[in-house]
Design a protein that fits this description.
The complex is a heterodimer of chains A (about 300) and B (about 200). Chain A is mostly helical and about 300 residues long. Chain A has one domain. Chain A is built from eleven helices and no strands. In chain A, α1 crosses α9, α3 packs antiparallel against α4 and α5 runs parallel beside α11. The two termini of chain A are about 40 Å apart. Chain B is mainly α and about 200 residues long. Among the domains of chain B are: about 90 residues; about 45 residues. Chain B has seven helices and two strands, in the order ααααααββα. In chain B, a hairpin with a 2-residue loop joins β1 and β2. The termini of chain B are far apart. The C terminus of chain B is likely disordered. The chains are: A mainly alpha (about 300), B mainly alpha (about 200). The interface between A and B is medium-sized, with 25 and 23 residues.
Chain lengths: ~300, ~200
Amino acid sequence: MTNTLLVASVGAVLLAMLFGIYCVAALDCAVEARITGRHRSNTLLAPLKSAARLWYAPHNQTETPDMPAWRLAPILYLMLAAMGLALVPWSRGFVPVDLTTGIVFWGAIEPLATVLIFLKGWAPNAHFPLLGAYRYVALGLSYILVSMFVLIGVALPAESLQVSAVVDAQAEMWNVIRQPLGLPLFLIVGLGVSFWGPLNFIDADDLHGGAASEDSGRIRLLWKMGRAAMLLSFSAIAASAFLGGWQGPWLPGPVWLVLKTLTIVLVLVVLGHRLPRLAPERFVTIAWVVLLPLAFLDLAWAGVEALL
Amino acid sequence: MSAVDITFYINAAIAIYAGWRVFVTDSMVRASFFLLISFLAVGVIMLLLAAVYLGVALFFMMAVEMMVMALFMVMFMMNPAGLNPMKMVHQEKVAIGVGVVAFAALSAVAVFGQFPSRPIPEGLQPVVSLGHELLGDSMLVFESAGVTLLATMIAVVMLTSHRGRYGDANHGSRPPGLEPGGDPADMPAEAEDEGHHHHH
């Protein structure tokens, strides 16, 4: 890789992260205002104002916390989201990180996110964050399996674990049509790993804010940004794995990728506001009894389809 | 020194430092996560060695494994959050002896061993050849090992969780009394006529 390409890759990922986080936050504000009917003065400025307020807010102190872990967890979570975003191909020739095992690497990001979410809830040494952390580990292990099977299903028609090969294999037909179960299951996992909307079990109201209940100031800001970035990464990977990524007529590849990613973000944000929240223990049952068998079915479908 | 060399030295240093911290730290959760950091650094070194699949597999295997390990250790221990300080080492003399012997043996292999110099042939696809190996000739071995490990894990959890901290798990957990045969220490008898009290 030449130096120019390296700089372009890093720049593209960082810009996409910043712009994408802002888009997620602004879409969230706009959808919330539309659904609740409480119109803010300016939806486009609201995320920036909220970020500025959190940046200058003081830090909250608990009794004997693990400060390094508490500070590091949000930063590392943001970095994980950036690594996921780096796997996404922008066009045939421009893939920031074209790893031959990109799909597996994405599969590694989800368990690492679980570790960070646990660490984040554990570090303040307080009740509600710790309950949120334990709750996420119990739930997270049940989502991750679903996402692994769905992603293996995507890799089968491409006969490769490379994300760019998965996108190339969708030139004739998108995976969302070829494997209809894949995208919905993957989006549920996306809501779960970024604990958004109905699947926000760890920062939940029934735990007084859960893992985020002791946060304030910059840690809270970084944590919110990390969640938005993870939702964005999930959307970008979902767009590449199921909606043909950068492929599309008339417009150049990167534009298609951005459009598809933002569409999925919008769907996820609307679902997050519209769907009711389940009890966590009931969702664990649903994850193992309904979602996991559906993921098996999706994989079997993909396998039969690849053999035919 | 190339970028690959620099990456190798940085990750080797991280792996060793984090591995040392595992034994110095005073918390189960921190120890698990330091071990995770050490493994992640080794995973990066495996990526440098062109073991693309194994390196990435190490990332997710170790992430899940260390998470579950931290959770289980905390669950089966007296220290509910894992934040209370506790000593992480025991039988130190034996452990130090074993460690020194293992280090000397591995170093001797690294320094005095004859390593074959076989450059990777052009066009070799490590992931594809690994897949053919795992799901071809070696499939029976790997599958048997996998099923055996799973059965072992389930059996170990069944055997260890049968007896809870306060007696047989089948009979419900009940802490011991403050005096022999007395009420459980942290479960005061529920006042049944509490509502009655308010009327007077």
